[in-house]
Amino acid sequence: MARHAIGLDIGGTKVAGAVVAEDGTVVDELTEPTPATSDAPTMSRLLLGMIDTLRRKNPGVVAVGVGAAGTVAWPSGQILWAPNNAYRDWAVRAEIEEATGLPAVVDNDANVAGLAEARLGDTLHKEMVLVTVGTGVGSGIVLGGRIYRGPHGLGAELGHIIVDPNGPLCGCGNRGCLESLASGTALTRTGREAAAANPDGLIARLAREKNVEVTGQIVTEAALQGDPTARRLFQTLARWLGIGIASVTTIFELDAVVIGGGVVDTGELLLAPLREAAAEFAYAKSVRPLVPVLPSTFGSAAGKIGAALLALDHADDRSTR
Amino acid sequence: MARHAIGLDIGGTKVAGAVVAEDGTVVDELTEPTPATSDAPTMSRLLLGMIDTLRRKNPGVVAVGVGAAGTVAWPSGQILWAPNNAYRDWAVRAEIEEATGLPAVVDNDANVAGLAEARLGDTLHKEMVLVTVGTGVGSGIVLGGRIYRGPHGLGAELGHIIVDPNGPLCGCGNRGCLESLASGTALTRTGREAAAANPDGLIARLAREKNVEVTGQIVTEAALQGDPTARRLFQTLARWLGIGIASVTTIFELDAVVIGGGVVDTGELLLAPLREAAAEFAYAKSVRPLVPVLPSTFGSAAGKIGAALLALDHADDRSTR
């Protein structure tokens, strides 16, 4: 019988949970909103409650995997810090193991999503980087079929490579990180500038109609409706992303770069200018094959699936405890 | 008895050869200038002659390793392209194995230098990046004690990550590569601009005294003599290098970054502003330890030593042939 694990993906707005088989099949699902007070005790209660609910319906699960936004120490499973949640120094893994008696793993959300895409995506990729573009820019690096984390599990933060040292201030405190130029947050910033400069433009009008401030989502909607200003902002974001991805392929050479996160739902609007910039800045084009840039297979489900896969990988592996 | 291998390091100006023991001890050496006509047949004759000479004096050598500037396919040992030498599509490994009957390996010069620094440098580093700053910017990435090359051996080109997409044209054809801003070639460019702007400055005067054009070396000499303009150019180079290295540590997390190549001979003149910029642009400083930036242990000998070490690693390994 196929083994199953619970996979949980903690994001800024929701916690997605699933019971997943070794082949990636999702046999059960459960999603809860992230509480406004996202401190460690509140989040622990939520997580343990979700595990309990999923386990009662699926008593055979053998392990629990968690993917979380933020800086996660590996293999200890301590979440040190997260840009968009209140939890700090949260010993998630130890708490889950103690409360459930099941082996658990905790890793960065993009790392586990990368594992799902590399192992079970439309094409098998041994060397692959997943870049997720949402509120921020996250990444999972899979080398030789395994997640690369760095000596303490704190690496693989492609959103914070510097692509323009004189660029805008990033949420992390540095200037010109890829995330400061190529995330939903960047689109919110440039969209607000555009709306202020042209209050009759579609971006400003859409926000007024909905009675909200301009966000990356409003800009995306305007771009999908063909607004030239929104399209230009979108193309600028995609160009920065392509430049960052060119550097990533120069460093790693890769079988593929996979793009995930909410912004990729716009399809070719993002991918076409992204691929163009990645090709323009690719190194030694005459001798190095251009690395394909593909949309993700699992979309927003990649995190919970990958978390469960990682849990199954390590369920019998005492070296990670 | 310790096994020995021949290590050869092919550079733009010289080919350095050595007979090296497993512990890194150099027991014999031989250096030849790179011929002006550095095409494949000329270079093959030179290499085979050097191997022959070293082998006659050291008949016990069990393998040959070659490090070469340029894009080298692994494990086939085909040198596809080099920015500063004329050879193209040169099947070095096959030629050496056929002519000598010894097992051979051929890899990028900074890759093998990185192996020597990681394994036998002053401190043992399991996860380390070597950045070599000379005419260009090269790099060797060592992860888990092994050279990371990418799926076809064409990765690890940190000199060509994009640090300023509107920056100067690089020798590779792209704009704003780290190499275009932080190499000896970059120093030549900025030094010539400074000399043209101020013909009475020390940079211009040193070049006139020696009856040569301004080069990176002239700028370095002026900086070591305390010339404020030359020091500023040097600091700018070091700052770009630090920015690139910050991105590298954001991606890999590392035990250390080691700086090699001719420019590091200037010591703290380069390293102090480099470390400052690397710290300024480091990601998540509150939770991630700052990665130490160290000068290389072996200097220009790292290439030939690392080439021999790699040859000994693979002397009995049929999987690489």
TrEMBL record, chains A, B:
SUPFAM superfamilies: Actin-like ATPase domain. Signal peptide: none annotated. InterPro entries: ATPase_NBD, ROK, ROK_cs. Belongs to the ROK (NagC/XylR) family. This is Glucokinase. It comes from Pseudonocardia halophobica.
